[in-house]
Amino acid sequence: MGIVELLGLAGSVSLISGWRLYLTVFVTGLAMRLQWISLPENLQMLDALANPWVLAISALGAVAEFFADKILWLDSIWDTIHTAIRPLGGALLALAVVDAGDPVWQVVVFLLGGGAALMSHSAKSAPAPSSTPVRNRSATRWSQPARTSQRADCSSSPSPIRSLRWSSPQ
């Protein structure tokens, strides 16, 4: 693998681990364990991900993360704690991809991998725009009593499914 491929792999792994660290480690380790992918000689350091203990712990973490995302207050606590864990994990995974003999590339890839993981983690854990004001505005509009100038008249519709027609008061 050339330097471009290594940097692409390091960047991909760190970006994905910023979003789902445990699932990234589990799927990568499982793919190596089942020999779906074969690693080049310079990436044999990643064989540690195929260890049964690493697979079990990462699977447990992935399941815990899945359920933590479903509970609002627990998701906030989980994301707060993982603001340090995910970027560090992404940086270490990116570091495992590059050549261990060149300290300059180690530092560069560690910083870029951690930054990429932090960026994707921040995008994932940022609060979503709330639709509550829109929902509340429409709910109050429909919950108010009907105006006296308009009322529904459904009595004269010939079909079994009555259509709603608006008529003015007599």
Summarize the structure in words.
The chain has 170 residues and is mainly alpha-helical. Helices cover 64% and strands 4% of the residues. The protein is built from six helices and two strands, in the order ααααααββ. Strands 1-2 form a two-stranded antiparallel ribbon. α1 (3-19) packs antiparallel against α4, α1 (3-19) runs parallel beside α5 (103-125) and α4 runs antiparallel to α5. The longest helix has 26 residues, at 72-97. It is globular, with a radius of gyration of 27 Å. It starts with a helix and ends with a strand. The relative contact order is 0.13. The mean pLDDT is 76.
Question: In short, what is this structure?
Answer:
The chain has 170 residues and is mainly alpha-helical.
- Which sheet architecture does the biggest sheet show? 2 strands, antiparallel
Low-confidence stretches: none
| Spatial arrangement of strands, main beta sheet | 1-2
> Structural class of the secondary structure composition?
mainly alpha
Average residue-wise pLDDT: 76
Shape: globular
Q: Keywords, please?
A:
single chain; 170 residues; mainly alpha; 4% strand
What's the structural blueprint in terms of helices and strands?
Blueprint: H1 3-19, H2 21-33, H3 52-68, H4 72-97, H5 103-125, H6 132-143, E1 151-153, E2 165-167
Antiparallel strand pairs: 1-2
Helix pairs in contact: 1-2, 1-4, 1-5, 2-3, 4-5
